[in-house]
């Protein structure tokens, strides 16, 4: 099939490339000319395992193209996927739909032919209806709008696209289920559930899924607080609870607050949808509050571990919100690092995906690209992101300051090992080793 992706970010680039790899002809459009130039010169614009090879392979055989010219792309495509961002509005929890609506108007402007627009962006309940009204106003009766929310996770996006648990299609016109089933047939053949529902149903499934996962994380994070006070290992609680198949073990690992480009904005987006429909979503509201409090809780704990912050050398291992991605959106480090710098601490950070522009203006903060050098003079090492390369470090050998401490936000290290090595070790939901 001939497809076009509007927006070539994490979702548009991965799904566009993977659709091409399934034999479709795909044109990825982005208004950011720098992104398109980089992609056209053979480089991926994001860090995502396995993606570079797939881009090269499909680009070289001509199944995958990158452009800033929306008109040509739309005119050559039967299915047009909207993959632009849907952030929260600056001053409220509401979803900013301006990128989506602008994209719809641009699409409408450049075609007179029959087209199907598909929202892959995460959009609140009723967005499809809103788009339908706009298209009606523009007298574009031959353009239909359906919903196909995306569930891929950054860091595992290629795998997630190829082996999805489910493919959700929301349309009020049944004929489109057939069209989308044809597109997704190779994935359905491998066992993916093809699930159809109303357009509003599909829109809500995405928010409900993200809010539920955020709730699960927040639940175990709050229990970790209790464990720290009650001398219990939260990992035992996760295992004891998670082995009940009604509960399940995934998303039950205590750690920092959840972050990233989806959970923070989608929990807020769901609450604002609730408001619109006069429905109180008190659980999700509490989750948002608890998650925000958690960042302050960690900052206070670090203050307690270090005593005064002024002049202390704090090392962050990893700054992205999760491993295997370069995405910094809503990462906990964005709150911690500027705070510690402000209080006079010196921050050194290492991240496998390189230095981050978010910290480039901070006076006491520098990126070091050698992990051993970064840790050498540390007073405190914060294990912030769960990259594999942080999992078996010989801290006693690489840190020269004998009084160094570790705060392991991911519980990466074995508790008794740290005790045997006499390392002052603080983790999440487990007793401190002082
Ligand atoms: N990132 C994820 O893991 C993930 C997973 C599932 C769903 N989603 C949802 O998918 C959507 C996109 O997320 P993302 O992380 O890929 O965003 P992103 O910010 O990485 O990419 C969006 C891209 O759209 C481009 N864009 C904006 N308006 C445009 C226009 N009119 N024409 C052409 N290009 C335009 C931007 O330049 C940008 O490159 C969001 O709604 C998000 O919630 C994201």
- SSE series: EHEHHEHEHEHEHEHEHHHHEHEEHEHEHE
Number of spatially distinct domains: 3
Q: Strand order of the main beta sheet, please? A: 3-2-1-4-5-6
User: What's the architecture of the largest domain, going by CATH?
Assistant: 3-Layer(aba) Sandwich
Q: How many distinct beta strands? A: 14
Structural class: alpha/beta
Distance between the termini: 62 Å
Give the overall pLDDT as a whole number.
97
Sheet-strand content, in percent, reads: 5-15%
Small molecules in complex: nicotinamide-adenine-dinucleotide
Q: What is the rounded Rg?
A: 23 Å
CATH class of the largest domain, named Alpha Beta
Q: What overall form do the CA principal axes indicate?
A: globular
Structure, described:
With 434 residues, the protein is an alpha/beta fold. The chain folds into three domains: 2-197, 3-Layer(aba) Sandwich (Rossmann fold); 207-287, N-(1-d-carboxylethyl)-l-norvaline Dehydrogenase, domain 2; 295-427, Rossmann fold (3-Layer(aba) Sandwich). 43% of the residues lie in helices and 15% in strands. It contains 16 helices and 14 strands. It has helices at 10-21, 33-40, 51-60, 70-75, 98-109, 127-137, 157-162, 175-189, 199-230, 234-242, 263-276, 282-306, 333-342, 371-375, 395-398, 415-420, and strands at residues 2-6, 25-29, 64-67, 79-82, 115-119, 143-147, 166-170, 193-197, 313-317, 346-350, 365-367, 380-383, 405-408, 424-427. It has a six-stranded parallel beta sheet, sandwiched between helices. Helix 6 (127-137) links the parallel strand 5 and strand 6. Helix 9 packs across helix 11 and helix 9 runs parallel beside helix 12 (282-306). The longest helix has 32 residues, at 199-230. It is globular and about 70 Å long. The termini are far apart. The mean pLDDT is 97. Nicotinamide-adenine-dinucleotide binds at residues 6-12, 29-32, 35, 83-86, 99, 102-103, 106, 121-122, 150, 152, 154, 261-262.
């Amino acid at each position: 099939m001939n497809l076009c992706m509007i927006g070539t970010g994490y979702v548009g680039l991965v799904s566009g490339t993977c659709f091409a790899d399934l034999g479709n002809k795909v044109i990825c459009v982005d208004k950011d000319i720098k992104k398109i130039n980089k992609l056209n010169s053979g480089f991926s614009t994001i860090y995502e395992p396995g993606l570079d090879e797939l881009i090269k392979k499909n680009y070289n055989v001509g199944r995958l193209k990158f452009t800033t010219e929306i008109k040509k792309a739309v005119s050559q495509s039967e299915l047009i996927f909207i993959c632009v961002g849907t952030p929260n509005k600056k001053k409220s929890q509401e979803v900013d739909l301006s990128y989506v609506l602008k994209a719809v108007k641009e699409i409408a402007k450049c075609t007179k032919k029959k087209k199907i627009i598909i929202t892959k962006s995460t959009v609140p309940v009723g967005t499809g209806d809103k788009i339908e009204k706009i298209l009606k106003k523009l007298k574009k009766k031959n353009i239909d709008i359906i919903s196909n929310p995306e569930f891929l996770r950054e860091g595992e996006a290629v795998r997630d696209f190829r082996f999805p648990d489910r493919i959700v299609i929301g349309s009020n016109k049944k004929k489109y289920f057939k069209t989308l089933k044809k597109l997704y047939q190779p994935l359905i053949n491998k066992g993916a559930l093809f699930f159809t529902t109303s357009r509003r149903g599909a829109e809500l499934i995405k928010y409900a899924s993200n809010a539920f996962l955020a709730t699960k994380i927040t639940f175990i994070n709050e229990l970790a607080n209790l464990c720290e006070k009650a001398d219990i290992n939260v990992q035992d609680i996760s295992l004891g609870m998670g082995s009940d198949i009604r509960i399940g073990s995934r998303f039950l690992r205590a750690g920092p607050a959840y972050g990233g480009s989806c959970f923070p904005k989608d929990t807020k987006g769901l609450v604002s949808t609730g408001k619109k429909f006069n429905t109180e979503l008190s659980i999700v509201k509490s989750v948002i509050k608890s998650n925000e409090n958690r960042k302050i809780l960690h900052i206070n704990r670090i203050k307690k571990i270090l005593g005064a912050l002024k002049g202390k050398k704090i090392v962050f291992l990893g700054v992205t919100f999760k491993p295997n991605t370069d995405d910094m959106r809503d990462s906990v480090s964005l709150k911690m690092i500027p705070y510690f710098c402000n209080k006079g601490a010196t921050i050194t950070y290492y991240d496998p995906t390189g230095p981050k522009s978010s910290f480039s203006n901070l006076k006491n903060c520098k990126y070091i690209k050698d992990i051993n050098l970064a840790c050498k003079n540390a007073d405190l090492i914060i294990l912030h992101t769960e990259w594999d390369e942080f999992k078996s470090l010989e801290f006693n050998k690489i840190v020269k300051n004998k009084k160094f401490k570790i705060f392991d936000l991911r519980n990466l290290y074995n508790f008794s090992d740290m005790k045997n090595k006499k390392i002052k070790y603080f983790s999440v939901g487990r007793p401190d080793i002082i």
